[in-house]
Amino acid sequence: MKLGVQIPSFSYPNGDDAIGPVLDDVAGIIDKADFDSVFVMDHYLQIPLSDEFPNDPTEPMMEGYTTLSYLAGRTRRIKLGTLVTGSIYRNPAFLIKQVTTLDVLSNGRAWFGVGAGWFEREAKAYNFEFGDWTKRFENLEDILQIAKQMWSDNDGKFEGKQFTVNETICHPQPLSDPHPPIMIGGMGEKKTLKYVAKYADACNLFMRAGPEALGHKLDVLKQHCKDEGRDYNDITKTFLGTVDPLNQSADEIIEEVAKYKDLDFDLLIVNMPNIHQLEQLHTLNDEVIPAISKF
Description:
Layout: E1 2-7, H1 19-32, E2 37-40, H2 64-74, E3 79-82, E4 85-86, H3 92-105, E5 112-115, H4 120-126, H5 133-150, E6 158-159, E7 164-165, E8 182-185, H6 192-199, E9 202-206, H7 211-228, E10 236-242, H8 250-258, E11 267-271, H9 279-292
Parallel strand pairs: 1-2, 1-11, 2-3, 4-5, 5-8, 8-9, 9-10, 10-11
Antiparallel strand pairs: 6-7
Helix pairs in contact: 2-3, 6-7, 8-9
């Protein structure tokens, strides 16, 4: 199992002036250490995360793809992605062009994280069309199909249930082979995991649900793969959790992650309170990564 880092909060001591320097420090450590990847949320307002993180919508929140471009310029090795982009935020062809640009300028290090979207307050605040559950999932399926077409030699028209693209021209093509891995975030059994089996290269589940629930979700994904004629082993299994190395020992974190080792996850992505306290990253790199790499 590999370890990645999600940065979901930009509330740092010394205010907004500290955001750039903190990201520089975090990215520098992660890139030089043994972490696999770094992810940011794709939100415009801070979301309700957990007791550890602020849920005031006026807290600082950075736009995802601008931030990833900044991080790409500060790193050379780690993979970069959103966890995850909602289907309501951008014109889909423009979104795929953003991901492609990130991939080319980072020398093939982009992930394409995407989901249906859920934060209705944010949509209303920025006047995005939120739509109902059905519309958001139709958006998502169109986006997945558009990505596949734009990352191919088919430059023709796309007409989906919600979106039309008159010409799916995308040059340069991604440097990733065959394209940036598509990761779908969420645990819905009827649509989300079905779309993983049909379109995606990776799933992202939530550690907070516990090992029994995640085991069930992976069983559902296996069945969807069978129905789609897809090899389940071709899908990268990832999950997102919160750790607190300032208040948890490395052994405690390892013990918690060990509960999931029989589920054969490929990548654990962690966020943590107060990521600006950089000693946490050293603890994870020096003590946790060597242990979970054996899982």
